[in-house]
UniProtKB/TrEMBL annotation:
PANTHER family: NADPH DEHYDROGENASE C23G7.10C-RELATED. Residues 7-343 form the NADH:flavin oxidoreductase/NADH oxidase N-terminal domain. Keywords: Flavoprotein, FMN, NADP, Oxidoreductase. It comes from Deinococcus aerophilus. This is Oxidoreductase. It holds the Pfam family Oxidored_FMN. Its cofactor is FMN. CDD domains: OYE_YqiM_FMN.
Amino acid sequence: MPDPTPQLFTPLKLAGLTLPNRVVVSPMCMYSARGGLANDFHLVHLGQYALAGAGLIFSEAAAVSPEGRISPEDLGLWADEHIVPLGRITDFVHAQGGRIGVQLAHAGRKASTYAPWRGKGAVAHEYGGWAVVGPDTRPYASSFATPNAMTTEDIARTVRNFVSAAQRAEMAGFDAVEIHAAHGYLLHEFLSPLSNSRDDQYGGSFENRVRFVLEVTRAVRTAWPTHKPLFVRLSATDWAPGGWDEEQTVALARLLATEGVDVLDLSSGGLTPEQQITPGPAYQLPFAAAVKRAVPDLTVMTVGMIDTPERAETALQDGHADLIALARPFLGDPHWVQHAAHRMGVPFDPVPQYARGTRLD
């Protein structure tokens, strides 16, 4: 007889890590750190998802260098002092039987900006802002800082920063790392012709524009334990003419698979204010499906307005994705997984203290 368990609640092995279900807490910036240090807010925010049974929890983006922060309040992994506060969080998650990863990031030309509720555009130096970098000197928008074009030495140093951050992530006890190459941040900026006008080995052709991402991936994969999965997040399209698109994403996916990437996390957009997006339920799922068709052995995660268990299950049953990442739905309902199990008739008690919890809907 066929297994009646929904795919959403079937385990998935990634390298040496087995996830109990296919629901992932997507990285979400909380803009609540000081000096890059995690604090009680991050412990409670991330710890709640372990209590509620998420298959894998990702922390928000952790900057690999101080100038790589999106805002002055971002998490960091550029210094050893960041290890112990993050280790406190991973210890709690593991004590509840959970699994947790960290996203490693550099914001590039979109760095040194205000938290959304504090303002818009670049933070002035007198208020804690800093000089930003990018592939060239074009800013993201007129209200953002003008970046300094990175030299090849800057690029090499950033690769080393990603490696050092991955090593600190291992010391902090994380089960997975994700390289952030999406949403208009530094690595994505090198991928897209709309933000990369370089004429050296890092610009121009597809092979040159993907070079930085591949160098970071190769270096992190070498430093990160082989029994722990490596994720890479890409924006599958810029939603703008002449930019990064689905065809290039599929081509890069093939290359990343040969570099030992375990999971490709597919989002979209974020590179240019000129993007034209018409969001709707599961609107980014076709990008995941395209990669699955082209690189069937690569595990693919999708994200974006997959807010119901039924929609998530359909994506898995159709073979369009292997993992479902949620962001806003978890902010509205931290116990989304538990309530989804109840709705789908799946026995599910993440921790005994919450076994009595049900949701009537």
